Amino acid sequence: SVCCRTCDVAVVGGGIVGLATARELILRHPALSFVVLEKEKELAFHQSGHNSGVIHSGIYYKPGSLKAKLCVRGATLTYEYCEKKGVPYRQCGKLIVAVEQEEIPRLQALYERGQQNNVRDLRLIDAKQLSVKCVWSAAQGLMALDSPYTGIVDWRLMALSYAKDFQEMGGAVVTEFEAADIATVTESPAGSIEGMKYPIAIRSSKGEEVQCRYVLTCGGLYSDRLSQISGCSPEPRIVPFRGDYLVLKPEKHYLVKGNIYPVPDPRFPFLGVHFTPRMDGSVWLGPNAVLAFKREGYRIYDFNTQDFADAVSFRGLWKLVFRNIAYGLGEMYRGVFVSAQVKMLQKYIPELTANDVLRGPAGVRAQALDRDGNLVDDFVFDGGIGDLGSRVLHVRNAPSPAATSSLAIGEMIADEVESRFNL
Ligand SMILES: Cc1cc2nc3c(=O)[nH]c(=O)nc-3n(C[C@H](O)[C@H](O)[C@H](O)COP(=O)(O)OP(=O)(O)OC[C@H]3O[C@@H](n4cnc5c(N)ncnc54)[C@H](O)[C@@H]3O)c2cc1C
């Protein structure tokens, strides 16, 4: 029963970040009690269950940033974890391919960046070496960055495996519990033992209650709302970007055996449409990035009034839109017309045609945005002040590659929880 359940630490959000952190916390503190509260029937249903499934090696991120450090460590921990627990994965490698002359300096800069981030086994290859390498894939280009350490895994399965570890160590998981309010306990008589010991109450939208000493929120697309309901800052705000994938028809799977990525455009945060083999044998192409009208809406026409009103009333969004209008319209156009998306993909695999692909699934990214319209690039964690705020820690921004980084993020947040809450 969740009615008046008590625990030392409640983790709100059963995605890969919440589960990795809950696992790490219980490993370090087996004598304490922990609960994970998730609003869906299933764990890892949203971003952690709707993504490209790539184990990133850490090439792209600014040296010294949390993203760079956590991705590089996270990739190593992921491979070790998969080996230990028998989670299927494939270290199938990745090529970042320059198809235009002007992309070559950016590719070289990316190589330098990867070296600074200590990414393993990176090398630049020319067109001739690329054609040899492409025995396993039909990619073509002028030059490429070869990253054999990149791999693929089903991140949802990983998250479920973290949950299993957590539960085996005595942690509790409660699904269909949507945290609607986080407040200091008021009902218990002032000074009562329970009131002193578990001073925070998390109430669900159905009226159930969990009382605890500390709260950690890992709410993905709702991280700003969770912060708001605990009296902490509503900013950075979350703006949802839907990414639609195409899938390759089975008879064309031979075209793609490893990950093929474009040279990213530094003006935009997403990595561009890519070719990704999946653990189930399918091949996904994409995703694009279009503004979504529903935070957890996976179809083009999904609409939620509150999510829409939230987005359009936020000044930061308008600044972002006006600065990137051409790019945004291009992404929408390619989302509607498959042939336009395929034309872009043909730069890398010329023999691909619109007949070789079908519309596939979609994912929605939680993109944090500040009031000046800047995309918040790195991970952000914060709490508040006062009786309530000082007992709460929010994971505000856990963008890609947070799945790859999840075990490292878990370690870092556990350190933060220990020092903030004096566990
Ligand atoms: C299209 C796409 C492709 C990506 N590709 C990759 C990739 O290849 N490799 C990689 O490393 N990363 C990738 N990522 C990023 C990665 O998937 C995410 O960064 C990661 O899954 C974030 O995990 P999370 O736990 O923070 O969020 P989520 O998985 O979204 O989990 C948040 C959870 O909180 C729950 N929640 C929210 N509000 C409440 C509430 N009020 N009460 C209770 N529960 C609540 C939600 O239901 C959800 O389960 C991709 C992301 C997307 C969208």
TrEMBL record:
Keyword Flavoprotein in annotation: yes
Cofactors demanded by this protein: FAD
Matching Pfam families: DAO
Enzyme's top EC category: oxidoreductase
The FAD dependent oxidoreductase domain, residue ranges: 8-415
UniProt cross-references to InterPro entries, sorted A to Z: FAD-dep_OxRdtase, FAD/NAD-bd_sf
Top-level taxon of origin: Eukaryota
Signal peptide extent: none
Chain ranges passing through the membrane: none
Catalytic activity: (S)-2-hydroxyglutarate + A = 2-oxoglutarate + AH2
GO molecular function terms listed in the Swiss-Prot or TrEMBL record: (S)-2-hydroxyglutarate dehydrogenase activity
Record keywords, A-Z: FAD, Flavoprotein, Oxidoreductase
Family, per entry: Belongs to the L2HGDH family.
PANTHER family per record: L-2-HYDROXYGLUTARATE DEHYDROGENASE, MITOCHONDRIAL
NCBIfam families: PRK11728.1 (NF008726)
UniProt protein name: L-2-hydroxyglutarate dehydrogenase, mitochondrial
